[in-house]
Design brief:
Radius of gyration of chain B: 33 Å
Helix content of chain A: over 70%
Largest sheet of chain B: none
Distance between the termini of chain A: 85 Å
Largest interface: A-B, 60 and 72 residues
Number of helices of chain A: 2
Oligomer: heterodimer
Largest sheet of chain A: none
Strand content of chain B: under 5%
Strand content of chain A: under 5%
Structural class of chain B: mainly alpha
Mean pLDDT of chain B: 87
Mean pLDDT of chain A: 90
Chain lengths: ~110, ~325
């Protein structure tokens, strides 16, 4: 059931609850009648609670659908951020390579091979 | 300023200017970074609020069910009444749990927004250009060591110049502009793709909050006032604990209504803040944004120059 339909039913139930409440406000009600109206009010209230829960769960389904898509965007951006880090890492690797060459050159010179 | 330093700065500036005027590549500007930070600050902590609306309503639903039960009369001659009362207590517990779980689901669905905000902040951070600065400085120093070693052994009479600083500066500038361009591109694409989802998500949150505001408002009459009066009529006299419990729920219901309105307004603000971010990251439209890009270029040139100075001093 869609949220709009649930909310329409909720409105009807709440109108009925108010009717029962105003009937209970009338003085001189017999005890059995008061109990009957009280039980009706309880049943309407329970139905109200049930519909509020169903309504919330419907909305949550919609939210979760969008949330999953945003999660996918987050994961994609995280990968791109990792690629950005690689720019500096590549330069770092080249610097290490040049260092290694300098050291190797030093060893070759000291061994009188160049 | 030494002549070669001035030449180096002009060379860097020209290189940078070519990068984004000839190629037309936009770079991440300070105002865009500020907009992301503003969005992050404005939305921080919001994602946990809608869930609290459902959990708080769960407490009220439980309390009104228990209050209604207290008007019942019991007798061993009719044990079904006590059995039904027990069922209602269990039902009250289950309803409270369901609303609590709904609140947790709302939190879970919206937690992704917190991560989204963190990722955007991470994306526009200076970390990548700073790391590039350190790496280029290392490379410049390594190159100068290589040149020194070569000169010492083979070209003592006519040494090669130490160009490590120049190369490091050029790499810092080219890499820096590339990174700033990539950051801008990723940011622009991301917020554009996420925008319809965020607008939709906030529309859903607003709908939930608006309905919860109605629920809280109705609660006072349908769930509290009516059962309270019936309990009072049935009991003849009420204990202070019953009155205090009803008072607490009245207070909670009214606070809940105000809170729901704030959550609803927050959803509108959230959606608007994201829209502003989208607008800010669109292709440059005016002179002000062009100036902001030139300022980014200046910053990158200055960073490259600093790297050169650092390498040359070693």
């Amino acid at each position: 059931m869609a949220n709009t339909e649930i909310r329409k039913i909720l409105q009807h139930i709440r109108s009925a609850q108010k009717e029962v409440a105003s009937a209970l406000d009338k003085p001189g009600l017999s005890k059995p009648r008061r109990e009957l109206l009280g039980d009706t009010a309880d049943s309407l209230r329970e139905l109200d609670d049930l519909l509020v829960i169903v309504d919330l769960n419907e909305s949550i389904n919609d939210l979760e659908e969008k949330s999953t898509k945003i999660q996918a965007i987050n994961e994609r951006v995280q990968k791109e951020i990792n690629d950005l880090k690689e720019v500096a890492q590549t330069v770092d690797a080249v610097a290490k390579g040049v260092d290694a060459l300098v050291k190797a050159f030093g060893i070759l010179v000291s061994a009188r091979l160049v | 300023m030494k002549r070669n330093t001035a030449v180096f700065i002009i060379y860097l500036a020209l290189m940078g200017a070519c990068f984004f005027t000839v190629t037309g590549c936009a770079v991440l500007t300070t105002s865009q970074v500020q907009e992301v930070k503003r969005f992050s600050r404005a939305t921080d902590g919001y994602t946990e609020l809608p869930g609290a609306l459902a959990r708080s309503y769960g407490v009220l639903v439980r309390d009104s069910a228990l209050l209604a039960l207290s008007r019942q009369e019991f007798s061993p001659r009719d044990p079904t009444k006590a059995a039904k009362a027990w069922e209602k207590i269990v039902q009250a517990y289950e309803d409270e749990q369901r609303l609590g779980a709904a609140g947790d689901c709302l939190d879970g669905a919206l937690a992704v927004l917190r991560k989204y905000s963190q990722i955007l902040s991470q994306l526009v951070a200076d970390d990548y250009t700073n790391a590039l600065g350190e790496s280029s400085a290392k490379l410049g120093t390594s190159l100068n060591s290589a040149i020194d070693a070569y000169n010492k052994n083979f070209r003592a009479a006519n040494p090669l110049p130490s160009v490590g600083g120049d190369i490091a500066g050029a790499i810092r500038l080219a890499g820096g502009l590339y990174i700033r361009h990539r950051q801008q591109r990723i940011l622009k694409d991301t917020v554009a793709i996420a925008n319809p989802l965020i607008q939709g998500l906030m529309g859903d949150v607003k709908m939930v909050a608006d309905q919860m505001a109605i629920n809280y408002e109705e609660y006072e009459t349908t769930h509290l006032k009516t059962p309270f009066k019936e309990v009072a009529n049935a009991a003849g006299q009420l204990t202070i604990s019953t009155i205090a419990a009803v008072y607490d729920d009245l207070s909670r219901a009214r606070a809940g209504k105000g809170f729901a309105k704030k959550v609803s307004d927050g959803a509108t603000t959230y959606a608007a803040a994201h829209q502003a971010l989208v607008d800010k990251t669109r292709q440059r439209m005016n002179l002000k944004e062009l100036i902001a890009e030139i300022q980014t270029l200046q910053t990158e040139v200055k960073a490259a120059q600093d790297i050169k100075t650092k390498v040359d001093k070693k």
